[in-house]
Specification:
The chain has five helices and no strands. It is mainly α.
Length: 142
């Protein structure tokens, strides 16, 4: 994987973290202060613009079209997938905004979201066995 093991995701810089946090802030502003017209469009453009450098940094590694740091899931992927799942719930999976976000930056965000879809709910028949095990432990000890 390379990178700096001292950083939370093993990346060589905190650029990815900075971009992800800025994107989250832009999304919070968007969802907290919805308004019609140009202001909403400007905030939505800011979300896309904020995700752009993060996507370019990941693409420059060339390791995967889906995951952020390689061919397997990493902690960084989990964080990004959680943020995207939150955004999908805020905007709604059937909205124009969500459909648009899934296509941004070569479809990177839609691919990442779909890769983690099976982990969203641990109490369904198609959830991974490891997720069901964690769910059972939480119920037993919670």
């Amino acid at each position: 994987m390379g990178g700096n093991p001292g950083h939370c995701c093993g990346c060589s810089t905190h650029r990815g973290t900075t971009h992800l946090l800025a994107a989250r802030r832009a999304a919070v502003i968007h969802s907290s202060h919805p308004s019609p017209g140009a202001a909403t469009a400007a905030r939505w453009a800011a979300v896309r613009e904020t995700l752009g450098p993060f996507a370019r940094d990941v693409d420059a590694r060339g390791a995967s079209d889906t995951f952020l740091l390689g061919e397997r899931e990493t902690y960084g992927d989990v964080i990004a997938a959680c943020w995207l799942g939150w955004a999908r719930r805020i905007w709604g999976a059937d909205t124009r905004e969500w459909a648009e976000l899934e296509t941004w930056h070569g479809g990177r965000w839609g691919q990442l979201t779909r890769a983690f879809k099976r982990w969203e709910y641990v109490d369904t028949p198609d959830a991974p066995d490891s997720a069901k095990c964690v769910s059972a432990l939480l119920v037993r000890h919670g």
